[in-house]
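Below is a filled-in request sheet from our internal design queue. Each sheet records the structural input a requester submitted and the sequence that came back. We keep these sheets so that new team members can see what a complete request looks like end to end.

REQUESTER: design group, bay 2
PRIORITY: normal
MODE: inverse folding
CHAIN LENGTH: 170
BACKBONE (tokenized):
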């Protein structure tokens, strides 16, 4: 990137011009090359119409979490504390990697196997932000919260469906 003040070259992502110290941060804003990129940058998570969360208390037995996942046909349940705030997430992957083989697992508490303090997004966060969190963390499900309380869940499948709609509208 060329500095607009002194004209000297700088590496992309530099916050300050290495020659004149001009603030370049505001100049390095994301831009889109097509409708899909534009949607990911501009559209908020709420455009996905996140599915209402299926929640269980941290003290619930795993059998309750498993029954809720089966009944609601979801791959993850959000774990809430006594005040209703998000404290964890329990996924199908957790059952396979953490629970399987544990004797008497159905009676064991969810808190013993959940992922604590999971990454989350708000309904107003850009889709690109949510997608980056999912990619970097290797998550298939991401809680959507409002002031720390779960209001929805999005999945990789939700984002793919949205991208396909954008492509079809193009």
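RETURNED SEQUENCE:
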């Amino acid at each position: 990137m060329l500095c607009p003040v002194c004209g000297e070259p700088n590496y992309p992502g530099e916050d300050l011009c290495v020659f004149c110290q001009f603030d370049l941060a505001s100049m390095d804003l994301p831009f889109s090359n097509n409708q899909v990129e534009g949607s990911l940058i501009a559209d908020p998570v709420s455009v996905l119409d996140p599915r209402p969360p299926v929640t269980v208390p941290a003290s619930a037995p795993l059998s309750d979490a498993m029954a809720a996942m089966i009944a609601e046909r979801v791959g993850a349940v959000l774990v809430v504390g006594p005040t209703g705030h998000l404290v964890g997430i329990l996924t199908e992957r957790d059952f396979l990697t953490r629970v399987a083989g544990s004797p008497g697992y159905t009676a064991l508490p969810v808190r013993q196997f959940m992922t604590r303090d999971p990454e989350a997004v708000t309904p107003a966060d850009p889709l690109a932000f949510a997608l980056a969190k999912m990619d970097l963390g290797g998550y298939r499900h991401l809680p959507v919260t409002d002031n720390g309380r779960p209001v929805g869940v999005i999945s990789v499948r939700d984002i793919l469906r949205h991208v396909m709609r954008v492509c079809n509208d193009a």
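SHEET NOTES:
- The longest helix spans residues 156-169.
- The first strand starts at residue 55 and ends at 57.
FILED BY: M.R.
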